[in-house]
Write a structure and sequence with these properties.
CATH topology: Rossmann fold
CATH architecture: 3-Layer(aba) Sandwich
CATH class: Alpha Beta
Structural class: alpha/beta
Shape: globular
Number of strands: 5
Helix content: 25-40%
Number of domains: 1
């Protein structure tokens, strides 16, 4: 099964290249146009919200208000980072500046893929006695 990431990006002067990065790693990338397509968001391994200013925080809040609980990784303008525990919002993996090394982003995605494999195939992960 192909793992899917929902990439939500708007308002950037220059494309971030995240779509190409994810696709080069074998991930499918969706960019739904509305928050009403909960099925797409629910099937994704995570939401990657890459927007300028405070838009990533407002967008995540909107998703949570719509009942979309998919884990989220926020990509923000340098200097706009804040501690995850400062936000009153669940399911945030991390908040990274757009200038972060792409490997940091991929490590989070890799962790989620590994976790999803455990949940999808628990019998494969049981230790024999």
């Amino acid at each position: 099964m192909t793992r899917r990431v929902c990439l939500i990006s708007a308002g950037l002067a220059v494309e971030s290249g995240l779509r190409e990065l994810f696709e080069s790693c074998g991930l499918a990338v969706s960019t739904p146009q509305t928050t009403e397509d909960a099925l797409v968001y629910g099937r994704a391994i995570c939401l990657v919200i890459d927007m300028p200013g405070d838009a990533p925080y407002r967008t995540l809040r909107l998703f949570r208000d719509y009942g979309i609980a998919t884990p989220a990784l926020l990509i923000v303008d340098p200097g706009q980072e804040m501690a995850v525990d400062e936000l009153d919002c669940d399911g945030i993996m991390d908040i990274l500046p757009r200038t972060a090394n792409p490997l940091r982003i991929l490590r989070w995605i890799q962790s989620l893929c590994a976790a999803r494999n455990v949940f999808d195939h628990p019998q494969a992960w049981r230790l024999s006695a």
